[in-house]
């Protein structure tokens, strides 16, 4: 069954250490993409999702501008962050390991996320709706996001970034008619 990501009800958030003592959190918007997902055969699932790095927001405009710059996402030159799954492995109890390829700044690397099916419901406005949540951690340096500054107790920006994705998706119209 093919599903379309609902960008209004989906989110991509991240957290990274700041000055080695606190965690700065932010969001990246412009989510779009599709899922192939049948709750009866989750191992056959596929997901393609993209986000717009020019929308990165942390609540601090100067930091947001820096994150969009060539020091980090280089959003003008690389306007899309993309994830494409390569395998979905059921773990029981609506939980899955989702492996795939994450592209940032034109660099593509494998990642693995812990995911869950939050539920599937009938939506009077949009037909069937499903919710999915996933978390994973990456080392930002693997994608060329290497800018940093040394400080007395380490570095200004941590290397490990925790990413959380909450996706809402609706059945594609042609699929809904066929069901």
Order of helices and strands: EEEEHEEEEEEEH
List low-pLDDT spans. none
Mean pLDDT: 94
Helix share, percent = under 10%
Structural class: mainly beta
Number of strands: 11
In CATH's first tier, which class applies? Mainly Beta
Strand content: over 45%
Question: Would you give the CATH topology?
Answer: Lipocalin
Radius of gyration: 17 Å
Q: Quick one: biggest sheet? A: 9 strands, antiparallel
Written account of the structure:
The structure is a single chain. The protein has one domain: Lipid/polyisoprenoid-binding, YceI-like (Lipocalin), CATH 2.40.128. 8% of the residues lie in helices and 61% in strands. It is built from two helices and eleven strands, in the order E-E-E-E-H-E-E-E-E-E-E-E-H. Strands 1, 2, 3, 4, 5, 6, 7, 8 and 11 form a nine-stranded antiparallel beta sheet that branches. The longest helix has 8 residues, at 61-68. The radius of gyration is 17 Å and the shape is elongated. The mean pLDDT is 94.
List key phrases describing it.
179 residues; mainly beta; Lipocalin; nine-stranded antiparallel sheet; 61% strand
């Amino acid at each position: 069954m093919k599903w379309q990501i609902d960008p209004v009800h989906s989110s991509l958030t991240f957290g990274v250490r700041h000055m080695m003592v606190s965690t700065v959190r932010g969001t990246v918007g412009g989510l779009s993409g599709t899922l192939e997902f049948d709750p009866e055969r989750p191992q056959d699932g596929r997901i393609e999702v993209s986000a717009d790095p020019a929308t990165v927001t942390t609540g601090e405009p100067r930091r947001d501008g820096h994150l969009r710059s060539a020091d980090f996402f280089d959003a003008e030159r690389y306007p899309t962050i993309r994830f494409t799954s390569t395998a979905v492995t059921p773990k029981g109890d609506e939980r899955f390991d989702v492996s795939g390829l994450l592209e940032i700044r034109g660099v593509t690397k494998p990642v693995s996320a812990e995911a869950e099916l939050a539920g599937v419901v009938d939506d009077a406005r949009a037909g069937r709706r499903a919710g999915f949540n996933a978390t994973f951690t990456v080392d930002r340096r693997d994608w060329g996001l290497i800018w940093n500054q040394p400080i007395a107790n380490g570095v200004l920006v941590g290397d490990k970034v925790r990413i959380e994705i909450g996706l809402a998706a609706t059945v594609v119209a042609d699929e809904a008619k066929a069901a």
